[in-house]
Design a protein that fits this description.
This protein is of the alpha/beta class and 285 residues long. The protein is built from 10 helices and 14 strands. 43% of the residues lie in helices and 22% in strands.
């Protein structure tokens, strides 16, 4: 729908209170799912991030790349196996993960941000020992559990007005590299930065009281209320680790944590710059 100039001005005016709220603040965005695979959505997400950056919001983009890793492994004739949703990562698989995440995916996103008018620099969690890790479970191979976040490389880039684009690969003092869950890494990074907001992009509407009914979306929830939903069976299977990350981020000091549907065009702008928001907002109380 075409808008008149007056209508465009009205839209911008209504966004002003939200721009004031977030300008100069740090927002961490965990990017993955369908919004990362669909080229049209990917372009829109990059445009939204550049817009937020241009109005003075400090954006940190943390990305996954599971489908790309699986596709590359298939092309190389290597099978993929998962245990409890985590990719079993032997030494050869870890090489592929590092190549795809820190290489192709990371640099593609940096390039997209740059071509849309942003200033971006790509990092992996190994750079500056940003994400220190250890083995999560020996039978998972090089799947990492985070032991420490060093936020200084990110803070330095934000100070220089760049958009840090971070692939979730960890490291240890012995030189091993680790495949880190993207949601977990984003939550830890947001906590270490004292971020104003953490946005977790997913392929669902948010938390639904009835998983088959989008109209039952829970728009806002406290940490205690979220924890109670486990026993009610409302948060199950693949949503459990994602909600765990949201709860942990709030407990670590992130003021607002949101699970939102990355399949909706401009969902990030809807969340940050309107009064309705998008998805489920987690707050401390």
């Amino acid at each position: 729908m075409d808008l008149s100039n007056n209508q465009r001005a009205e839209v911008l005016t209504k966004a002003l209170p939200y721009i004031k709220r977030y300008t100069g603040k740090t927002v961490v965005i965990k990017y993955g799912g369908n919004a990362m695979i669909n080229d049209t959505l990917k372009q829109q997400v990059m445009e939204d991030i550049v817009l937020l950056w241009l109005i003075g919001i400090k954006i940190v983009l943390v990305h996954g790349g599971g489908p790309e890793i699986s596709d590359t492994m298939k092309k190389m004739g290597k099978e993929t196996s998962f245990v409890d949703g985590l990719r079993v990562t032997d030494a050869e698989t870890m090489d592929i993960v590092q190549m795809v995440l820190a290489g192709k995916v990371n640099k593609t996103l940096v390039n997209l941000l740059e071509t849309n008018g942003g200033n971006a620099i790509g990092l992996s969690g190994m750079d500056g020992r940003m994400i220190e890790s250890t083995f999560k479970k020996k039978d998972l191979g090089f799947v990492g559990e985070i032991t420490k976040i060093n936020p200084k490389p990110i803070e330095d880039l934000l100070e220089m007005n760049y958009i840090p684009v971070i692939s979730t690969i960890g490291c240890d003092k012995d030189g091993n590299s680790y495949n880190i869950n993207g949601d977990t890494a984003a939550a830890h990074i947001a906590g270490a930065l004292g971020a104003e907001c953490l946005i977790m992009m997913t392929d669902i509407d948010g938390i639904l009281e009835d998983k088959d009914d989008p109209t039952t979306l829970i728009h806002e929830i406290t940490v205690n209320e979220a924890e109670a939903l486990y026993s009610k069976g409302i948060i199950t299977s693949g949503m459990i680790p994602k909600v765990d990350c949201c709860v942990n981020a709030v407990k670590s000091g992130v003021k607002n944590v949101v699970i939102l549907d990355g399949r909706i065009p401009h969902s990030i702008l809807m969340e940050l710059l309107t009064n309705e928001g998008a998805g489920t907002l987690f707050k401390e109380k």
